[in-house]
User: Fold these one by one.
Assistant:
Number 1:
Amino acid sequence: MAASRDRWERVKSSLEPFGMPVERIDAVVGANLCNAEISRFYNRVKNFFFYTRFLSKGEIGCYLSHKKVWQKILNDGVDFGIVIEDDIEALPEFAQVPALLENIKEPFDYAKLISPGRSKKIIRETPIGNFRIVRWLKPPTYAAAQAIKPSGARKLLDVRKIFFRPVDVDIQYFWETRLNIIGIYPEPFKFNDTSKQSTIASTGRKNAKRTFPFARLANEIVYYVKSIFYKRKTF
């Protein structure tokens, strides 16, 4: 966010040794959105039926911020954009990532460059040099660091003119977006200590209300049935 100048300086300094062009895209501040603006992009009815809790203003602003970046990837005509949030720090492995992305032979739209949290079941992996290219049964959450091709940006923008889940959770629903998602190990990024002061959490996510009783269980059952069906069709 524009107000988080210290975060930007820290991210920029971690990327400078790699000699790659870096551009900052100011985030949408969810707390500043009025209800009329929110209703243009966020569908509360679909949120009720297809997610476990109502989104906070911070999560809505986060989603709109990512949409700004997807649109820029399309507008700039690049081969891919490496998109990172402001609580991320580059590791030495990042130096090899642009060349790696160009040399991956199998098709993909979206490459996750950090996959924290609980380990997800890997259903396929391919070694390339010092890295492993993986595919999961259920891709991890977090949209903190990823490489997105124009094909992926277009799919996301076309399908999610209106959204109803957090952006990182929405990426997991690959059969809705038709995103071809891969992951890269070892991860070329890590979270820095500013990630503990989340600007999204501070705008209401922790206190968000559940949509309906047993929503989490119901959504997980539907997710795994559909994901297994789609994976069998794809792979």
Number 2:
Amino acid sequence: MLRFAAMRGLKKRDKVRTKLERPVGILHVRRSEAVDRVTRYWPSPDLEQLVEHYWVVRWDLTEPRIAETVPIASVHMVLEAGQSRIYGVMRERFSRVLTGRGRVLGTRFRPGAFRSLVNSPISSFTDRRLPLTDVFGPRAAMLGERALRHPDDRDAIAVVERFLLSCHPSVDGDMILAGRVAARIANHRSVTRVAQLANDFGISQRGLQRLFKEYVGVSPKWVIQRYRLLDAADRVATGHIFDWADLALQLGYADQAHFIREFKKLVGRPPAEYAGSLAAPRGQRVRRRGANPTSG
């Protein structure tokens, strides 16, 4: 078992760099458009095995706006004035009404890595939003306030990193394996079956199920389906016209109808309708009816 250790030398804020890769899972934005209001940062080297990245959302609006995202297989710690929480893996899309002015600082943990901070399976957090004190105890009560009082993102992140290191997280072999399997799913569109993963990593399908329940929070099949649907939404956002039956087969679905049902369930519209909605002005693409003001 490997313990995390704080690095000496540079100040914490100086080791945090901006992450320039385009975010995934943000709905209602064409591929040709910039993703506004969101800035992401790499973690410092001493936490890179635990944290995928930090994200900051700022808004200053004269009219309410709905922001929607599709979550992936990661736990998040979300700091916001008055409502800082741990979000387990959420299986439905986030829909958040943004009003006035605000700022949120999020920590996206690598798949499997949050298990190093808690004493229970990550499946126990799935689809749950918990106050920080329910997870980390009283010492986390003012973490959001301590971080967000710093207007500079890097200074705020330094507060978060000091807190995470004070939790004494540790890496074990199963955590690393869970992360490697999840990364294979995310980075290889050809992965459409759990049996492929079991064969590639030399582990039984049942063993893979147990590993994901303990460390990731959802089944490997769910993770495969989520990333393939994200692939589909991303392709639709390019503005190209697709043969939906062919796309369904490419993503591992048995037929077009199954693919369209799953896409609509996650995104809120069938793929053709979603593609058409992206032609509208940016502020008019999201239906207001049924929006839930949940954090994301």
